[in-house]
Each structure stands twice: as C-alpha cells, then as structure tokens.
Design goal:
The chain is mainly alpha-helical. It is built from nine helices and two strands; from the N terminus they run ααααααββααα. Strands 1-2 form a two-stranded antiparallel sheet. A hairpin with an 8-residue loop joins strand 1 and strand 2. Helix 2 packs across helix 8 and helix 2 packs parallel to helix 9.
C-alpha cells in the first residue's frame, strides 16, 4: 500500500508532474537558444548545429530523445490525473475567469492548463512532422567534404506560408499562458523556497514564460517578413 502511494498520492502526482514539466521547460529554453541561429542568413551555423545534435552525438541522442518522450508522457498523464481530481473536488467550474489578487495566483493560465496542455502536445507532434520528419534538402556547408541536411531551408520555407506562421504564433501564445502558471507552481510543488518567496518565484516564472513565448513568436515573424533568417 505504501509503495503504491509513492506513485498515486496527491503529493506524488504533483511532484512527478512538476519534475517532468521543468525538464521540458529547460529543453524548450535550450531549443530556443539554438533556434536563434535562424536569424543568420547564412544557413551553415544552424545546419552545423543541427548536424551535431542528430549525427555527431552518437547513441546519446537516442537516449535523450527517449527521456524527453518519457518526461512528456509523465507530465501529460499526471497532469490529466491531477486535473480530474480537481474536477471531482470542484464539479462546478468558475463562472468567470479573472486575475486573482493578493495571495491568490489564480489566472487565465492556471484555469486553462489542461486545455493549453493538450493543444501544446498536439503541436509537438505537428512540429516534428514538419521539421524533424519534414522535407529533406541536402547541401555541403563550408568546411565539410560531404553533404548534410539543410534544415535551415526547410524551416525558412515553412515560415514563408502565412497560415503556418499564424498557427505557430497562436500556439506560442498558448504556450506562454501555460508556462506562466506551470513554472512557478512546479517550483512550489517541489518545495523550493519558503512561502514568503512565492511572489519571487511567481515573478520568475512569469518572466521566463514571457521570454520563451516572445522568442518563439519573434522567429517565425522575422523569417516571414524578411524572407530569410537574415537582416531586414
């Protein structure tokens, strides 16, 4: 019975969901930093970066991909589990969503977590289909004697379509709402800091969410309006 509680208690659910979610926040942060190379009109830096990750890291890339999928599934499953528990505890939802004040952290982001989470999960699948498994172009970059994938071209062509840009931007806005609550609540669930630091972690989470969402929104808009990843 005690062993079962390790995985099924309300505290355990929130801890596992939080750990898995924060791993993905860190991954998304690193992913954005790498994608900033798309701002360069020269495709070589981004493509060499992509080639290093996919071809030169050996078997470690498969281990990391497996762990990312595992953490994603863990976060999603426990997230659904916790939400169902919340619905059962409060069968009648709020009639209107307003930004709560004082010590409450209830917001649009907090009450839409399950919905934005499902949309983001669907987006990840679509994102992989369009980029990781999308159109493959090959070319030989400077300093190489063999061709590698020109992922830079695949991304640029995708974001030349206004519908693709619109879909991406809307989803990134939803990601911002999701993270605005997810980051600070995860830190709180893990017991990082005393309650008096809650405003601090809330601010950190909010800023982090805004920066990530703004970064991922900026990239497709920049590519679309410049035609390439280069300067205006």
């Amino acid at each position: 019975m005690r062993f079962k509680m390790i995985f099924t208690s309300s505290v355990a659910k929130k801890i596992y969901m939080s750990i898995a979610g924060l791993v993905w926040v860190l991954f998304v942060t690193v992913h954005l930093l790498g994608n900033l190379q798309l701002l360069n009109s020269d495709p070589d830096p981004f493509n060499k970066y992509s080639y290093f990750l996919t071809e030169q890291t050996g078997e470690i890339i498969y281990v990391l991909e497996f762990l990312l999928v595992l953490f994603l599934v863990t976060h999603f499953v426990y997230g659904i589990w916790v939400q169902i528990g919340n619905w059962r505890a409060r069968p009648q939802g709020y009639s209107m969503v307003r930004w709560a004040k004082h010590t409450s952290r209830r917001s649009i982001g907090s009450v839409t977590m399950i919905y934005t989470g499902v949309i983001i999960l669907a987006f990840i699948v679509i994102h992989l289909i369009n980029f990781k498994y999308g159109t493959v172009y090959m070319y030989t970059p400077k300093g190489f004697t063999h061709p590698i994938r020109d992922l830079h071209r695949t991304v640029i062509e995708f974001f030349r379509n206004p519908w693709n840009v619109t879909f991406y931007v809307i989803t990134m806005v939803l990601l911002g709402f999701h993270l605005s609550h997810a980051i600070w609540s995860s830190l709180q669930s893990l017991g990082i800091g005393s309650p008096r630091f809650t405003p601090f972690w809330y601010t950190v989470g909010l800023i982090w969410a805004i920066v990530l969402a703004a970064g991922f929104i900026f990239l497709p808009l920049w590519i679309y309006f410049t035609g390439t990843g280069g300067a205006l």
